[in-house]
Write a structure and sequence with these properties.
mainly alpha, 16 helices
Length: 342
C-alpha cells in the first residue's frame, strides 16, 4: 500500500516541468519572431487555446459537459468593448481583469443551475444560458449594437507603452503573455489537492462525497474559475480585433471549442492548446484548398481521430522525439561508464 510520502512524491513528479513543456513555450515564443506575417492567425490560435483551456478545466478535470461556454466568452468580449468604447477603463490590462471578473460573476450565479443536473441536463442548461444571453444582447441593441456590434472601439497602448498595430505584433505577444500567466495558475490548480479532488469527483462523485469531499462547492469553484478564463479569452478577442458582435455568443463558437478538445484531448492542460493549433491550421489549410467544403474535411479528420485513437496518434507523433531522447541518454551513459571505472 502506498504511504503518504509515496503519494506526495508521485504528486511532485507529476507537477514538475518536463522538457517537452519548456520546448512547447519556447516554440510558441519563437513563432512570434519567425512568422511576422502571420501574427493575426497566431493571435487567433492563442485566444482559442485560452478559451479551450477554460473548458478543459471543467470538462477534463471535473466532468462538466458544456455546450454554452461561449456565454462567458461573450460577457468578457462585450465588457472589454463597452469599457473601451465609453472610456471607462482605457488601459487594456486593467480592462482585461474587469471583463474577466464580470464573466466570473455570471459564472458563479449560473453554476448553481449547472451542478443540479448531470450530462444531458448540464448540456441543455449551459446551452440555454448562452442562448439566453445572446437573446438579451440582441434585445438591448442600443447597448450592444445589435447585429452590427460595437463600433468605434479604440484600445489604448498596453501598460501605456505598447500600441496595438495593424499587423498584430503587439496583440500576439500580449495575448501570449496572458495565456502563459493563466496557464501557470491553471497548472498550479490542477496539481494541487483541489485539483486532485476534482479528479475524484469526475471519476466517482458519490465515492468522493463519501470520503468527505464537498462535491458541490468544488464544482461551483472550478466552474467559476473556468468562466473567468473564458471571459479573459473574450476580452482578448475584443482588444486584439477591436470588435464585439453577437457572434461571440453563438453556438458555433461553443461547438468549435468542443472540436478543439476532441482533437487535442481532455484532462491535461496542453490538450486545448495543441487542439487549437491543429484546428486552426486545418481550417486554414482546407479553406484555402476548398473554401466551400473545408468543414467536410475537418469532420473527416475527426472521424479518423476517433477510429485510430488519440493515444496511438500521440505515440506516432512522438516516435522521433523519443528516439532522439533515447539516443542522447545512451550516449551520456556511454560517456559515464569510463569515468566510473577510472
Amino acid at each position: 500500500m502506498a504511504t503518504s510520502s509515496d503519494v506526495g512524491r508521485i504528486a511532485r513528479a507529476h507537477a514538475s516541468w518536463h522538457w517537452s513543456e519548456i520546448a512547447f513555450w519556447c516554440l510558441a515564443l519563437a513563432c512570434g519572431f519567425a512568422f511576422p506575417s502571420r501574427y493575426l492567425i497566431m493571435t487567433d490560435i492563442v485566444r482559442l487555446g485560452l478559451f479551450a483551456l477554460s473548458l478543459d478545466l471543467i470538462l477534463g478535470y471535473a466532468g462538466i459537459v458544456s455546450l454554452g461556454h461561449a456565454a462567458f466568452f461573450g460577457i468578457g468580449a462585450y465588457s472589454a468593448g463597452l469599457l473601451a468604447l465609453h472610456g471607462v477603463i482605457t488601459e487594456p490590462v486593467l480592462a482585461l481583469l474587469v471583463a474577466g471578473l464580470a464573466a466570473t460573476v455570471i459564472g458563479f450565479l449560473t453554476s448553481f443551475l449547472v451542478i443540479r443536473g448531470v450530462d444531458l441536463t448540464r448540456l441543455m442548461v449551459t446551452l440555454g444560458i448562452a442562448l439566453l444571453l445572446e437573446a438579451l444582447a440582441e434585445r438591448y441593441s442600443d447597448i450592444t449594437g445589435g447585429t452590427d456590434g460595437l463600433q468605434g472601439i479604440v484600445m489604448a497602448p498596453v501598460l501605456g507603452l505598447f500600441e496595438f498595430d495593424i499587423f498584430g505584433r503587439t496583440g500576439f505577444f500580449y495575448a501570449l503573455i496572458v495565456l502563459f500567466l493563466l496557464f501557470l495558475i491553471a497548472r498550479r490548480v490542477v496539481h494541487s489537492p483541489f485539483g486532485l479532488s476534482l479528479r475524484a469527483i469526475k471519476n466517482n462523485p458519490l465515492r468522493a462525497a463519501a470520503i468527505g469531499v464537498p462535491v458541490n462547492r468544488r464544482l461551483i469553484a472550478v466552474y467559476t474559475l473556468a468562466s473567468f478564463y473564458a471571459g479573459i479569452a473574450g476580452a482578448l478577442f475584443t482588444q486584439t480585433t477591436q470588435l464585439a458582435s453577437l457572434d461571440v455568443f453563438s453556438f458555433e463558437r461553443s461547438a468549435d471549442l468542443m472540436l478543439v478538445l476532441v482533437i487535442g484531448g481532455t484532462g491535461y492542460l496542453y490538450g486545448g492548446l495543441i487542439g487549437a493549433v491543429v484546428f486552426r491550421m486545418l481550417q486554414e489549410f482546407f479553406s484555402t484548398i476548398t473554401p466551400e467544403y473545408w468543414q467536410f474535411w475537418i469532420g473527416l479528420v475527426l472521424v479518423v481521430i476517433v477510429l485510430v485513437g488519440r493515444a496511438r496518434l500521440h505515440r506516432w507523433v512522438l516516435l522521433v522525439p523519443n528516439w532522439i531522447s533515447r539516443q542522447l541518454s545512451g550516449r551520456k551513459a556511454a560517456v559515464a561508464i569510463p569515468e566510473s571505472e577510472a
